[in-house]
Amino acid sequence: MSQDILLESGTNELEIVMFEVASSTFGINVLKVREIINPLPITATPNSHQHVEGVIRLRQEVIPVVDLAKVLALPASNKPENDKLIIAELNQIKVAFHVHTVSRIHRISWQQIEKPSELSTGFENHTSGIVKMEEHLALLLDFEKIIVDINPKAGLNLEEVKALGERERSNKQIIIAEDSATLRKLLEDTLTTAGYGQLRFFENGQLLWDYLEQQQELQTDPIDLIITDIEMPQMDGHHLTKKIKEHSLWGNTPVVIFSSLISEDLYHKGEVVGANAQISKPQITKLIQTLDDLFIKQTN
């Protein structure tokens, strides 16, 4: 993908590649897309997950191919010669998503994206947001969940946290913006196991920001650190971080970005908005060690 389409950090905008599977329209964040190619010969892999067609060789890399029609229980392509492979990178792994057509790139605001209700899409288990376009709706798929469903080892690993050994309980107050209910539960379990039990979760950056503004008025609970995902409806993590760091009261509060989008060439976006640390999912042990280090710095 051309680098010139990448947005300035912290604008609360994103660009999505629109594509179709059967007659349904979906989107994927441009930041996850490395390239879009015509199908290559697929080598079947024995005992693979039912949603994995096999692997392709792209230049010097071997990349698994996930058939989104199977994931979404939709009909196979009726014109396979026109199909495309979206080569994506998330959670520090590359995956080829097999789709039927790719249309264009749209620039939108996160405020145009709503969290799907349980009955709204029919694809709710695989959808992270509903994009309100001028002419139609498009669904943002939860590609992280699709990958974790295929390979649970790609998710957070509680055993890694237990391997850190017995830890002191911390009274540090941590607030977290994460739109995935599954990840909120995993983060709660893993951080509590690591000794960080004073946690408050929000479904998106806007809700966390509203809470901060409320706390400014009430001045009740201290807030020692903030963890945020990047991709969230209403307000993304980069925009949230920028607002926090520019705020007179919260500007010195450490902000840790914990996201599947922390790749080598996108790291600078978090730096620009002032994030104190950026950890790629699913590196939960690194996240905990980073929290330890930041709290040690606070006491020195």
From TrEMBL:
Domain of life: Bacteria
Residue ranges of coiled coil: none
Keywords annotated in UniProt: Phosphoprotein
Gene3D superfamilies: 3.40.50.2300, CheA-289, Domain 4, SH3 Domains
Record organism: Alkalihalobacillus alcalophilus ATCC 27647 = CGMCC 1.3604
Protein name in UniProt: Chemotaxis protein CheV
Domain annotation CheW-like: ranges: 13-152
Domain Response regulatory intervals: 173-296
Residue(s) carrying 4-aspartylphosphate: 229
Signal peptide: none
InterPro entries: Chemotax_regulator_CheV, CheW-like_dom_sf, CheW-lke_dom, CheY-like_superfamily, Sig_transdc_resp-reg_receiver
Gene Ontology biological process terms, A to Z: chemotaxis; phosphorelay signal transduction system
PANTHER family in UniProt: CHEMOTAXIS PROTEIN CHEV
